[in-house]
Specification:
- There is one protein chain.
- By secondary structure, the protein is of the alpha/beta class.
- It has one domain: Rossmann fold.
- Helix content is 39%, strand content 14%.
- It is built from seven helices and seven strands.
- A seven-stranded parallel sheet has the order 3-2-1-4-5-6-7, with helices on both faces.
- Helix 4 links the parallel strand 5 and strand 6.
- The longest helix has 29 residues.
- The radius of gyration is 18 Å and the shape is globular.
- Bound molecules: nicotinamide-adenine-dinucleotide.
Length: 256
């Protein structure tokens, strides 16, 4: 059992891999031996571990296809896809549902759900051909519960409706894909992070961070590296009997 989380024979693609949680996942999975490909519109800045970067715009099918083809040509397999990229929801906007345009609504839902759909669709043929794989989708606590408007005030960190609606869709899309690709050996699970504000964001708005701390059972926000355990479980063979599952990594936020 000592090698349960060993990933030394696995190629992992992380969309949004240059971000806060993506950087932690890159470092964490590389330390377990994985070949990690960061697929992002921005180059990684804070990644310590060896990794590969392939520019990818997850809003574009063509760009996703190009990235996956390059991964396959360079490494010969795609064992794990982590759908981490999310964009377009317009965080901080005070405008609630009654003020949201059709365009803004669509951009946010597509940036959470559409991108997960596109990357999943494009990776399935590779995984099918090699006899299986693991897909890990990033949902959110806000795909499970609503933001509590009373804690946001004028923090500028308001969380809009299109984000959570997209993330709730990610949870269902995860179950759908698990059901329909299990026969191909493809496992599909999700992770739902709770509050992981960036260090810069925490410094800028300590009063808001206190509100976030108070809302969790553990009385603190998450450190980026604390996402790694759940992701390593779902990405590795340690979770060989898990599919269609969601793991909340939220300090207890959604459990009360
Ligand atoms: N941080 C949190 O508190 C939190 C909470 C719940 C869920 N999540 C989810 O976890 C995941 C990672 O979050 P994070 O905090 O690391 O986000 P982040 O904003 O730090 O990183 C997002 C990354 O996605 C990249 N990106 C943006 N548009 C892209 C595109 N079109 N194509 C490819 N890459 C693109 C950005 O360059 C960035 O590197 C997201 O799905 C997010 O919704 C985060």
């Amino acid at each position: 059992m000592s090698n349960l989380f060993d990933m030394s024979n696995k190629t992992v693609v992380i969309t949004g891999g240059s971000g806060l949680l993506g950087t932690a996942m890159t470092n964490g999975l590389a330390s377990l031996g994985a070949t990690v490909v960061v697929a992002d519109i921005a180059e990684p800045k804070h990644t310590e571990a060896a990794h590969h970067f392939i520019a990818c715009d997850a809003s574009s099918t063509e760009s996703i296809r190009h990235m996956l083809k390059e991964v396959y040509e360079r490494f010969g397999r795609i064992d794990v896809l982590i759908n981490g990229a999310t964009y377009g929801a317009g965080y901080g906007a005070q405008g609630t549902v009654d003020k949201m345009s059709d365009e803004d609504w669509f951009r946010g839902v597509d940036g959470a759900l559409g991108t997960t759909f596109r990357c999943t669709r494009e990776v399935i043929p590779y995984m099918e051909r090699q006899g299986g794989g693991s897909i890990v989708n990033f949902a959110s606590m806000y795909g499970i519960v609503s933001p509590d408007p009373s804690i946001y005030g004028d923090s500028g960190a308001n969380n809009p409706a299109n984000y959570g609606a997209g993330k709730a869709g990610v949870l269902q899309f995860t179950r759908y894909c698990a059901a329909h690709y299990a026969s191909k050996g493809i496992r599909v699970n999700s992770v739902s992070p709770g509050p992981f504000p960036t260090p810069a964001g925490q410094e800028k708005n300590p009063a808001f961070v206190s509100e976030l701390n108070r809302k969790t059972m553990l009385k603190r926000v998450g450190k980026a590296e604390e996402i790694v355990g759940a992701v390593a479980l779902l990405a590795s063979d340690a979770s060989s009997y898990m599919t269609g599952a969601n793991i909340s990594v939220d300090g207890g936020w959604t459990a009360w």
